[in-house]
Fold this protein.
Amino acid sequence: MSGSSVDEVAASIRLVLLGVVAVIQPGLGLVPLLSHDRGPGATAAYLALTLVTLVCAVWIVRRRPVPEPVVALGAVVVLVASAVATAALPPGGHFGAGHWSFGLAGWHLLVLLADRPRLSAVALGAHTAAGIAQFALAGAPDRTAIGAAGVVVLGVTSFQFGVLLLTRVLLRNARRAAEAAVAQERAATRAAAAEQWARDLRTGFAGGLGSTLPLLADLADGVLDPRAEETRRRCAFAATQLRRLFAEQDDSPDPLVHEVSACVDVAERRGLVVSLAVSGEVVPVPTDVRRQLTAPVAAALSAARERARVSLLRADGEVRVAVVADAAVPVDPAPGPVEVRSDTYGGQTRTEARWRTG
């Protein structure tokens, strides 16, 4: 259940309460109004309550919340109308058959404030207190009148507060269900992300070990001579690839620079003099693209003999990684979004990988 479902529950509650008011208003209001003595304000109070019902229906029947200004104004109109109708009662008419406004106004307040349980409780309490105060100020009632009034007040308020309590429970359960659904959705998203991360990790390690394991097997079997230049280059390349792969799993604000720096670190440990220049703002680069951008770096640094220069440029909608090494560099560009170029001049090989961000 989502947040919209909570709104649906609140809309259904308002619609049910509006139906209750539409049914009981003629019975609790119109019939007693016409059949008992009334003052001039009673008719105006009844019309005001009817107007509140009609105005609220404009939003409620479309299952939309009543705007807050309308709710506030409607609650004031209901309380004032109830007070006016009560003031128009003849002597001894409080909480009797002609006191229709006491029970009816409470239902109007529930329609207006059903999805606001605390405000609804305050409004019902104020309405009840005002009715009791007007009853007390109308004259010194005897014990019989007080007992009869107590029965009416208890009967009306207990039922309306019971409906309010039920409404609060329904809304609370709907919110809890919505929160549980959101939490479950977040957990599912985290689980899917973790599974994807583990899958990428396995794929990356499988790719790195796929080129390393045959090399180790050939060294162990004596197929390769550890003193040969090509063997040393392959070992350096494998070490650089693995180091870059480990760096790929790190949490870094600039993953591309972090992975390029990992390749440079392996080369420096081999005794190479490597300079690294970085320019431009951080650009989000997908993992597979970073692998293609750093692959020429690893190859060039593995082939370099003494010196190398690495530059990373991010500008004009593209990312470029270039390496100048003092040795011939084997270039084996893989199909994908990264373009790789390599040029050799006088024993210096410049290799560049370029990716357009657009």
In short: The two ends are 39 Å apart (CA to CA).
